[in-house]
TrEMBL record:
The keyword Cell inner membrane does not apply. GO terms for cellular component: cytosol. Its cofactor is FAD; Zn(2+). This is Ribosyldihydronicotinamide dehydrogenase [quinone]. Its EC number is 1.10.5.1. It comes from the Eukaryota. It comes from Seriola dumerili (Greater amberjack). Pfam families: Flavodoxin_2 (PF02525).
Length: 265
């Protein structure tokens, strides 16, 4: 499955087309959700539920959509996207990075499609998540060069920028998150450089399903009774190490290099 949020004729569109072509030629069944073409609604509202909500006076989106999901009363556009997620082994999110994050229409897809109950619950999240058997990857363009997204660059470390997206959304729902495919500033480089970017993506695609995911700290390392704090023995084990566990769970140490950009770190 490829969730695509950009206009036709863009570099992102070319990256999406490359993925469809390569994966289809490999024998994969590929479904594309072109959010702009679909005019996908970005805002999470009571309209996402068919019929009357359980508590219209004090409407709580997460709880109401959980009940609607259980009763088959979510709106048709959400239900269709949830079907695609359920059937997918791999989901590629193709988009241009907007303001260090996602375009509003794609953020709306996450807000509306990954409902409580369907995508996560109190007991099923992170390494125990519902989608732990599925892989996903962020494939996106930037408006700035790679040097600007470094630990010494003006935009800051891209690993830090990616943490809320890859840990807070994807890993939270249990996905095995593959290293992102980043197309650095395609609008500011020569056409040959853009062609090279696409060729590298084409070379990566055939082996995507076999790639090792990024590293996140398992839920078993946290003490539920103490507010999901890291267990003392995990602290002790990592006390003498130079780097923290991950970008987010860093133990006050130096951030592990490329923790959100390359597998095995």
């Amino acid at each position: 499955m490829i969730t695509f949020s950009n206009l036709s004729g863009s570099f992102s569109a070319a990256a999406k087309d490359a993925a469809v072509e390569v994966l289809t030629a490999q024998g994969c069944t590929v479904e594309v959700s072109d959010l702009y073409a679909m005019k996908f609604k970005a805002t999470a509202t009571a309209e996402d539920i068919t019929g009357e909500p359980k508590n219209a006076e004090h409407f709580r989106y997460a709880e109401e959509t959980k009940l609607a999901w259980e009763e088959g009363k979510l709106s048709a556009d959400i239900t269709e996207e949830q079907r695609k997620v359920t059937e997918a082994d791999l989901i590629i999110f193709q988009f241009p990075m907007y303001w260090f994050s996602l375009p509003a229409i794609l953020k709306g897809w996450f807000d509306r499609v990954l409902t409580l109950g369907f995508a996560y619950s109190h007991d099923k999240r992170y390494s125990h998540g519902i989608f732990k058997d599925k892989k996903t990857v962020l494939s996106f363009t930037t408006g700035s060069h790679e040097s600007m997204f470094s630990a010494t660059g003006i935009n800051g470390d891209m690993n830090v920028t990616l943490w809320p997206l890859q840990n807070g959304i994807l890993h939270y729902c249990g996905f095995q998150v593959l290293a992102p495919q980043i197309f650095w500033a395609p609008s500011h480089v020569a056409s040959q450089a853009r062609s090279t970017m696409l060729e590298e993506w084409r070379k990566r695609l055939p082996g995507l399903l076999g790639e090792e995911p990024l590293t996140f700290t398992p839920m078993d390392c946290f003490d539920v009774e103490k507010g999901f704090q890291l267990k003392p023995e995990v602290h002790e084990k990592n006390a003498t190490k130079e780097f923290g566990l991950t970008v987010g769970i860093h133990l006050g140490k130096r951030l592990p290099p490329n923790n959100q950009m390359k597998c095995g770190v």
